[in-house]
Design a protein that fits this description.
Blueprint lengths: L1 H45 L19 H12 L7 E10 L2 E9 L3 E8 L5 E8 L24 H12 L5 E10 L2 E9 L3 E8 L5 E8 L15 H12 L7 E10 L2 E10 L2 E8 L5 E8 L2 H13 L1
Antiparallel strand pairs: 1-2, 2-3, 3-4, 5-6, 6-7, 7-8, 9-10, 10-11, 11-12
């Protein structure tokens, strides 16, 4: 009986141990599964959402370099490398064309160029003359400037002429280098709606050697000859201006000519020891030019002889 009781107690203990081990195994499995789920959820939460990036059109690769573009612009402006300060050079796209935008300046002006980056063609250019710091100060160029090591260049000569004329822009009709009395000079001509300017500038010092201005005359377009005053009327007007009568004058020239786009009468005559020249508008009879000067006695005698022959 004791034996049976001992065996029963041994089985009970064994069953209890087995149950305990089973519970522990299940508990451990449950913790592992929970741990695995917990580590997965944060990973899912941290996953980034997909975004779309919109890119702007970028310039395509240029065939010419930035330095080549700068050189093209500087050369077109006719400037020396040591007189130029580049302020911006960048590759850009303009109307679908890849271009270099080049900006630089000198002491007198600012320049802007747009150059085709594929073929080096200048698409546009602008020049802005810088205002003088003090308008009441002396002219930009001294009266007797020291000679420069090399010629100032056509473009700078243009700037000197424009500034002296008080202009910022004009249409140049002539810009060339010449020699005057063995000295290199720039001869410039430009015009505005007010008139035509002529300048001669020392090619090395930039000094203005000569300058002149001719205002624009109002042109008259009259085709019918009947619209002109007569030649006799023009001669009468000239005599009245001289304070003379016809019997006191000997005409050496009286004819209709075209001058500066208008028809005029050129009248020349002698009276005593004086010679008279008068230019008269053939349309309205106004006196455009009048001159008188003394003549040599021989010329006066010749005029009297002509008068006697008449």
């Amino acid at each position: 009986m004791k034996l049976i009781h001992s065996i029963f107690r041994g089985r009970t203990a064994l069953i209890a141990v087995v149950c305990l081990l089973t519970v522990l195994a299940l508990f451990a499995a449950g913790c592992s599964a929970q741990k695995a789920d917990g580590s997965q959820k944060p990973a899912d939460a941290a996953a980034p959402t997909e975004t779309t990036v919109h890119e702007t059109a970028a310039p395509t690769e240029a065939a010419i370099s930035e330095e080549q573009a700068k050189e093209i612009a500087r050369t077109d402006a006719g400037l020396n490398a040591d007189s130029v300060t580049f302020t911006e050079t960048k590759l850009d796209v303009d109307n679908g064309v890849t271009v270099y935008e080049v900006e630089f300046r000198t002491a007198e002006a600012e320049y802007e160029y747009e150059i085709d980056a594929a073929i080096g063609k200048i698409l546009s250019s602008e020049i802005k003359i810088l205002a003088a710091e003090d308008p009441t100060s002396a002219p930009m160029e001294p009266t007797s400037p020291a000679p420069a090591a090399e010629a100032i260049g056509i473009e700078r000569a243009k700037l000197i002429a424009l500034r002296d004329a008080g202009l910022t822009d004009a249409k140049f009709t002539k810009a060339e280098e010449d020699t005057e009395d063995g000295k290199p000079v720039y001869e410039l001509q430009f015009r505005t709606d007010k008139g035509e300017y002529d300048y001669e500038i020392d090619a090395f010092t930039g000094a203005i050697l000569s300058q002149s201005f001719e205002p624009v005359k109002e042109l008259q377009t009259v085709t019918p000859s009947t619209a002109y005053i007569s030649l006799e009327e023009a001669k009468t007007i000239a005599l009245q201006r001289a304070g003379l009568t016809a019997d006191k004058a000997t005409f050496s020239k009286a004819k209709l000519e075209k001058e500066d786009g208008r028809q005029v009468y050129e009248i020349e005559f002698y009276a005593g020891a004086k010679e008279y020249e008068c230019t008269i508008d053939a349309v309205n009879g106004s006196i455009l030019d009048y001159e008188t000067e003394g003549v040599e006695q021989d010329d006066a005698d010749d005029a009297d002889d002509l008068d006697d022959d008449d």
